[in-house]
């Protein structure tokens, strides 16, 4: 099931139509940027992704390992994750990831994307139950999981941020990339294609 050009959280009317919550979320560390690599690198790459997007999972498994090895770990780029959940399960997964200590965010996201076919789309499974099991492996207790699941303030904050990003960048699907200020909306199937955009942004 491809989610790349799926309508953006059309299945979230309860949040969209609810009484608006205050947007004063700046003090919440869970909403701070999730960045890996050199924050002073000349090229900053932003990825907007959904944890139930199959194209995002494909990129994570086939291209990102080389990006991390050759560009992130060497300090050539700063890589910033932007949550852009396409459904309620992806939104809960993003909430869980952001509730972990910052140094566990990227490994947890990597784990969810690389095993997406087993927890999100496998037949005869409950994705929420699978998320709870994976969250437990990441260090979240059952009580913490349920507290996060019931945290409508965090849920609304992530939806608000997604709405702001959509209005600003007109994101048509995931994954969506920006290399410095240069948008890239096509699929990046190889490290070479990714690195070409890095070189263009840094020139």
From TrEMBL:
Pfam family, one: Thioredoxin_4
SUPFAM superfamilies per record: Thioredoxin-like
Annotated InterPro entries: Thioredoxin-like_fold, Thioredoxin-like_sf
Name used for this protein in its record: Thiol:disulfide interchange protein
Annotated organism of origin: Neoasaia chiangmaiensis
